[in-house]
Design brief:
Elements (H helix, E strand, L loop, with lengths): L5 E4 L1 H14 L4 E5 L1 H6 L2 H7 L5 E4 L2 H9 L6 E3 L7 H8 L2 E5 L2 H9 L6 E6 L14 H10 L3 E8 L11 H13 L7 E2 L3 H6 L7 E2 L25 E13 L4 E2 L5 E2 L4 E6 L16 E4 L2 E5 L8 E4 L11 E5 L5 H7 L4 H10 L4
The structure holds pyridoxal-5'-phosphate (PLP).
Pyridoxal-5'-phosphate binds next to helix 9.
Length: about 350
């Protein structure tokens, strides 16, 4: 049997979603976040589809190299910056911007002798406590960067929200206030908003918005789906029915016998499992679309198979197409049933290297 599992990436949907982001934040440039293999969607095809983005955000140099390898000249921002001086020449060769978030980086920048000065984004930790300088030190750091011969002044000013997807807005309002206080009287373009910030905090759109999830068609907000914001799903994960059985009431399905047929009924076996990136923690009842009909996961997910309750679609046939998420079945729903977020589902597919 050839592997029945396939990933379809709708590049028109990527373009559409970028357009939607521009409608949502009409006065901002778009730094399209394409780290982690474009959230599992395939980096090169994603950046080609998003070639009108104002810049791309990546986590590491390897990703920047792939973008330049695709002959794209958009600015690229290395979101995690650099750790060693040797990387700086590669960064110049790839014409990347860097995020500067810690003292060790400043010391390297002040000591080295670069052929051209770098464009830097000064990262401010306004409450996320992951990367960045504390607000009280920002003016001092800003001056050091402006005085450094290896830096093109002025640095851009950037922060990241920890809770912008929360309906409790207090923490984000506090981060916004911390940011504004930290950058008082400083020149340079500003960037705060991730996808959730774009949707919920328009006052944070500033010069650059940094959407990830929205570009891939998903909503970062709880109990929400991308379609509610005019977004289209980009990734559709499909497989096929590889067996159909009629079982008697009480028959137990799969490992651990965690699900029992409540009546005499049909069970379909689908050729996809956690080895393909489908979440093993998806619970009984997780929606699965069989030939366009909404059915439900039954029993534990195996490595390369899962079972579906076919009572909602008795006419299922061998070879029927099954959609696990994407077109017609929002990934947000599946993520909820698996106690995770769509980002993890998408990246899990990437790890298997099928795209
Ligand atoms: C990943 C990332 C984003 C994008 O986040 P989404 O929630 O996917 O929009 C924005 N900014 C930074 C610094 C990031 O690391």
């Amino acid at each position: 049997m050839t592997c029945p599992t396939q990933i379809h990436i709708n590049t028109d949907a990527l373009k559409h979603n970028l357009k939607r982001v521009r409608e949502l934040a009409p006065n901002s440039k778009v730094l399209a976040m394409v780290k982690a293999n474009a959230y599992g969607h395939g980096l090169v095809r994603t950046v080609k589809a998003l070639r009108t983005a104002d810049a791309f955000g990546v986590a590491c140099l390897e990703e920047a190299m792939m973008i330049r390898g695709a002959a794209l000249t958009n600015p690229i921002v290395l979101m995690s910056g650099f750790n060693i001086a040797e990387d700086l020449l590669k960064i110049i060769a790839l014409n990347c911007d860097i995020v500067v978030h810690c003292y060790a980086q400043i010391e390297i920048l002040e000591k080295c002798n670069l052929p051209t000065p770098l464009r830097v984004w000064l990262k401010i930790d306004t409450g996320m406590h992951r990367l960045g300088f504390v607000p009280a030190e920002v003016h001092k750091i800003y001056s050091r960067l402006c005085a450094c011969k290896n830096v093109q002044p002025p640095p851009k000013l950037i922060t990241h929200f920890a809770n912008a997807d929360s309906l409790e807005e207090h923490a984000t309002l506090q981060q916004i206030e911390n940011f504004n206080r930290a950058i008082t009287n400083l020149h340079g373009e500003k960037s705060l908003a991730n996808s959730a910030g774009i949707l919920l905090f328009p006052q944070t759109h500033a010069d650059w918005v940094r959407p990830g999830g929205l570009l891939y068609g998903v909503s970062p907000l709880p109990n929400d789906i991308g379609a509610n914001h005019g977004l289209q799903p980009v990734m559709t994960l499909t497989s096929k029915i590889i067996a159909i059985h009629a079982y008697a009431k009480g028959a137990a399905i799969g490992y651990g016998s965690t699900w029992k047929c409540p009546e005499n009924m049909l069970i379909g076996i689908v050729g996809i499992g956690y080895g393909d990136g489908y979440p093993r923690h998806a619970k009984n009842g997780t929606p699965v679309l069989v030939n366009g009909h909404l059915c439900a996961l039954a029993g534990r997910v195996s490595m390369d198979m899962l079972a579906v309750d076919l009572r909602a679609y008795n006419n299922a046939k061998l070879g029927d197409e099954v959609i696990l998420w994407g077109k017609g079945l929002a990934a947000e729903h599946v993520a909820n049933w698996a106690d995770t977020i769509t980002y993890e589902l998408f990246c899990g597919i990437a790890r298997r290297g099928q795209n």
